């Protein structure tokens, strides 16, 4: 028996070499793919994070402003409620103003009567109340209130 001597087939060797190169290339791609993915993630984070942080800072600033404005609204509402409770005080003040105007008119009338009796002599009331204006110069709201109270009979009863 004759021993067969192995003779390499050049075409077969070419195919084997090409296949091993492709396998090696694929192994290299697979081995480096995770690092490529991490690189892409890092690149995305580097681009996306700064605008996101800026928006977060902006949202926090807006939240603080909104909270401050909510406190302002609460304070305004409590002020309005307090003003509603002050209605009695305003009513009393109007009554005091009516009374003061009426007394001023009475003093002026008495002063005019004395002037007619005493001549042109100035009274003590005129000197002390020289800065008080007549009803002609008072705002219409106050003088209307006074004239309305003069016509009602209940003003003198209180």
From TrEMBL:
Its main location: membrane. It comes from Cotesia congregata (Parasitoid wasp). It is found in: Lysosome membrane. Keywords: Lysosome, Membrane. It comes from the Eukaryota. The keyword Membrane applies. InterPro entries: BORCS8. This is Similar to CG32590: BLOC-1-related complex subunit 8 homolog (Drosophila melanogaster). GO terms for cellular component: BORC complex; lysosomal membrane. Belongs to the BORCS8 family.
